[in-house]
Amino acid sequence: MRLGARIFKTGLAVTLALYAAMWLNFENPAFAGLAAFFAVQPSIHKSLTLIWDQVQANIISAVLAIAFVTAFGAQPFVVGAVVLLIIAIHIKWKKEAIIPLAVVTAIIIMGTPTDNFYSLAADRFLLVMSGVFSAFAVNMIFLPPKHENQMYHKISGINEEVIQWIRLILHHEIDYANLKQDQERIRTSVVKLETIFDLYKEERSIFKKAEYARMRKIVLFRQMIRTTRKAEDILKSLAKHDHVTHQLPNEIEEIVRHQLDDLTNYHERIMQKYMGKVKPQSTSDYFEEVTEGKKELVEVFMTYQKDKVFEHDAWIHFLPVIALVIEYSEELEHMDRLVDGFFTYHTEQNEVEITDREL
């Protein structure tokens, strides 16, 4: 099991909150740790944008909790009513992300009413806020997320899996049970990748030049993800129509196999070029081969259909695969141009901040 930076950051925030509560002589410092757990955010930008929302949510929860306890007591149904009200308010304001923290604040304040309830409520509120600010401090100072590094290696890992399965299908060496399991895993990885990309888009740089460079990287990574998704689409389509490939004329099957081999090699080389592992001009030969292969694939496929060399139904079923291969080729060409542009223009600002993956 691998522990990520966010897990360590959460543990650090809880620890800091507990020490802060103990140093301030609060009773039940565990409540501060609980608040810190819910307040930790995956990025610095989210911390900055949500800190005021978290403070506001805690104030609202505290006011509602005190008002309802004063008016109706602290019976379980009253606590439940306050929780429902807090959830409804934050959904109305489209602040769903801070609902757990707001609910915890209300329950902590309403949990154990005593004769000096107002003093206890104030202490509990400050206790929760100490946890929130501890989490904010950890988010801002310790272990800043390396989204660019995470995205690149996530994309590379998905590409390796997808390309491996495409090659196995083309050579009819596939185990369908394992393929199905891996496809589920690939889909999950793509969803995680897009979540990381969304977090990366939300980040902001302090200096304008750095922000412009980051925006160029956003365009580039968006294209990398789009190209990876297209490769995944080809894998799904090939798996779905694998029985049709056995009915194809040998010439078409060979051209499809050769074209996809060229495209997957081209894909790998572009990713290596972004990392600086190969020379910038190393993809020019692949580009020419892919362009010629695309023309040849379309011409041969249409000629065979026109001459009715193989069944029309088989041709119709395999047509989506051919369309996806062409789209994949065009996405790769666009991605290659973006990488070339990234290293050709604004070179003093564009830096690749990626470390090699540990073996």
From TrEMBL:
One cellular component (GO) term of this entry: plasma membrane
Protein's name in the database: Aromatic acid exporter family protein
Topology of this chain in the membrane: Multi-pass membrane protein
UniProt keyword annotations, A-Z: Cell membrane, Membrane, Transmembrane, Transmembrane helix
Main location: membrane
Record-linked InterPro entries: ArAE_1, UPF0421
Superkingdom as given in the UniProt entry: Bacteria
Transmembrane portions of the chain: 59-85, 97-113, 125-144
Annotated compartments: Cell membrane
